Amino acid sequence: MSDFMKWLYAHYIKPQIDAAPQGEYAEALSVVENEIIPHMKADYEKAAEFAALHAFHLGLRTGKGLADSFTA
Q: 14 and 52 in contact (C-beta within 8 Å)?
């Protein structure tokens, strides 16, 4: 990932994820956060970063692809 994407994750995407209501996912997220083996936490966080950045890219590509659909 580019330095910009890492910055974007740290300063925009991750805070948005942390502030989002957890709803039905609260229990599962709590189990992962509290039960994960400490030396695996960095791997978990890196995997979450990877997934979030690729989901962000998918959103950009999808939005760009749909742009022409909304013209009259």
A: yes
